[in-house]
Write a structure and sequence with these properties.
This protein is an alpha+beta fold.
Length: 652
């Protein structure tokens, strides 16, 4: 087609105008991130954010959430209730306006909400658009109002359905996610509960109750100590050596809260929030905190002569952060977010606000608690000594070329394409599986790095010991992006790093060890979305010449049912003695059992494989899991394993 012909064919009739919420249904990922599990649970967060905003304004102190037996979710708050009177411009109930028009709501009116949460601010109208049906009830002015919607469209006008006490106010929203939009529509209690716990820590005046009527689980979250209890929760599996430091203040209408403590850990864990949003990429508030921390502790150490005059070591910011667990929460009237995931605060003025408040209040605390100040400085001195040893170890490793990307590990089977965005590396458990992966891969863009045995548990080791581990040095060299403070994900030689381990206990342990290393020393790999977990199948089901793979027990049962098998007559797992003739089930014990063709078809072919992308949707959950599983304290680990044992795939 010529350019002239194309211009003639491109007329006003080609311009599509999406009315109401059609745009949301057309491109849902633009509004909620994706249409998988993450996007599904984001729907609940959007509704809850409105209830939290009522709490921030002082109008609500409780939220009730339930996963209902039919798969829908109900969120109830006890705030002012969404207005129902006629909107002066739209000439319809304000309730209908809020529920059916994008970017309509009280958040844009600072007389209604001083600050508000919600990262994208897409609001409940997007939830409505992506629901098969939604029902909203408002208790306001002694009356109950209700409206129902179908895929975002009102079924009827707002109507009064009952009366209540005038003091009984609030909003109740029940919605069913649309299976025409989402890949999965089943809500997971643990995912929702983790976010609700986080919100309860950040908003100490609120109680959040959540229950799952399907799985019959429930939790109630209320923390009078707020972020002090948050820090203690994060450090539950660590040994701390002083009381939690708490700082709060307000400057230029920007409230700041900080809580922190030091433990025997070798890494830091700083969680920062803006208007309840987890800013996983940090930003100006985090910079302000780090600057104040380093300057104040340095000044205190010098003033009190806690650093020996003949010491050749200078304390740096890294030294003051070793073993630090901190939560920073600020409330900003007009937050500006930037960064790859739009979770980095860009407001430059917030840096000086946080720096000023933390610097002043921390200096006062240290003067009043000299014994704690001395303990912290002593720990920082030990961290500085270890840092110096690590620097020497890095220099030695560099001289041996292990960190030089020009000298790649001998066991690495590299790909031929050099553009990182089109390359991926499989970190594979064991030489046997590594051999199959090397033979089965697409050599153009897939690299294979076999890892022998279990790598060092970095949660229990200083950086100089980490750099001495052979398998870790191999990964550092292969990725080519450095380690720790020097790590730069933009220099990584691969756009995807895929962990591929056996589907057994040892495989899970190796995967967790690798993820712990990434999280502690290459976190940017995770925050930039470069880390994936391969999902090899558990079963091969054969009927005649047909071969089908199943990735879990549920999929196995669905396949067998499709083949006409009476599932009740089939014994568990690979025992196929009760299967009809001609049907056979094979259970894979490990990757090494698959030949190269099977490994390619099931786990490595981009057209057919299933992978899980690792993300830090909740920094709280990530750090808690790594520290619980990899730390020294036994009791939290035992409790975690007992709670999650039913989800484990354990060979006995």
């Amino acid at each position: 087609m010529t350019k002239e012909t194309a211009q003639k064919n491109y007329t006003a009739s080609n311009i599509n105008v999406l009315k109401g919420l059609e745009a949301v249904r057309k491109r849902p990922a633009m509004y909620i991130g994706d249409i998988g599990q993450r996007g599904l649970h984001h729907l609940v967060n959007e509704v809850v954010d409105n209830s939290i905003d009522e709490a921030l304004g002082g109008y609500n102190d409780k939220i009730d959430i339930s996963i209902n037996k039919d798969g829908s979710v109900t969120v109830i708050d006890y705030g002012r209730g969404i207005p129902v009177d006629i909107h002066p411009v739209e000439k319809k109930s304000a309730l209908e306006v809020v529920m059916t028009i994008l970017h309509a709501g009280g958040k844009f009116d600072k007389s209604s909400y001083k600050v508000s949460g919600g990262l994208h601010g897409v609001g409940v109208s997007v939830v409505n658009a992506l629901s098969e049906w939604l029902k909203v009830e408002v208790r306001r002015g002694g009356k109950i109002y209700m409206q129902e919607y179908e895929r975002g469209a009102p079924r009827h006008e707002v109507k009064e359905i009952g009366k209540v006490n005038k003091n009984d106010t609030g909003t109740k929203i029940t919605f069913m996610p649309d299976n025409q939009i989402f890949k999965v529509t089943k809500f997971k209690f643990d995912i929702l509960a983790e976010r609700m716990r986080e919100l309860a820590f950040l908003n100490k005046n609120i109680t959040i109750n959540i229950k799952d009527e399907i799985e019959e689980e429930s939790e109630s979250f209320h923390y009078k100590g707020g972020i002090i209890e948050f820090v203690q929760y994060l450090d539950e599996a660590r040994t701390t050596f002083h009381k939690t430091v708490y700082i709060e203040g307000e400057k230029d209408d920007t409230p700041v809260e900080v809580a922190f403590e030091y433990s025997d850990a070798y890494s830091d864990n700083i969680c920062s929030y803006v208007n309840n949003i987890n800013t996983i990429e940090g930003g100006s508030h985090l910079v302000g905190f780090k600057t104040a921390l380093t300057r104040t502790f340095n000044n205190y150490a010098i003033k009190n002569k806690l650093i020996k005059d003949n010491s050749k070591i200078t304390l740096t910011g890294d030294d003051f952060r070793e073993g630090l667990t901190a939560v920073i929460s600020v409330k900003v009237m007009e937050p500006q977010f930037e960064g790859q995931t739009k979770t980095k605060l860009g407001n430059s003025e917030v840096k000086s606000i946080v720096e000023s408040i933390v610097g002043e209040k921390l200096a006062d605390f240290l003067e009043e608690n000299p014994s704690i100040g001395k303990k912290i400085i002593e720990k920082c001195m030990r961290a500085a000594e270890a840092r110096e040893a690590a620097r020497k170890a890095r220099d030695l490793v560099r001289r041996k070329s292990a960190l030089d990307s020009m000298h790649l590990p001998g066991k690495l089977a590299d790909c031929s394409i050099k553009d990182p965005e089109h390359c991926e590396i499989y970190v594979v458990e064991g030489d046997s599986a590594g051999g199959s992966a090397k033979m089965g891969r697409d050599r153009r863009f897939q690299a294979i790095l076999p890892i022998k045995g279990k790598i060092l548990n970095v949660e229990k080791a200083k950086i100089n010991k980490v750099l001495e581990n052979t398998e870790i040095k191999t990964m550092i060299a292969a990725f080519g992006a450095g380690i720790g403070a020097e790590f730069d994900a933009s220099k990584a030689r691969y756009g995807k790093v895929i962990i591929m381990t056996d589907a057994d206990v040892d495989g899970s342990h190796i995967r967790t060890l690798i993820l712990t290393f990434f999280y502690r020393y290459m976190k940017e790999l995770i925050t930039t979305g470069k880390v994936y977990i391969a999902q090899p199948p558990l079963y091969k089901i054969k009927k005649g010449k047909e071969e089908v793979y199943a990735y879990d027990d549920e999929e196995r049962d669905r396949i067998l049912a499709r083949m006409g098998v009476n599932l009740k007559a089939v014994k568990e797992n690979e025992d196929d003695s009760n299967l009809p003739k001609g049907i056979n089930i094979s259970r894979y014990k490990g990757l090494g059992e698959m030949n190269p063709e099977q490994l390619w078809d099931t786990t490595m072919n981009p057209e057919t494989r299933t992978m899980l992308q690792v993300n830090l949707e909740s920094a709280l959950a990530a750090d808690k899991i790594f520290e619980t599983l990899m730390g020294d304290v036994v009791e939290p680990r035992r409790a975690f394993i007992e709670k999650h044992a039913k989800y484990a795939n354990i060979d006995v």
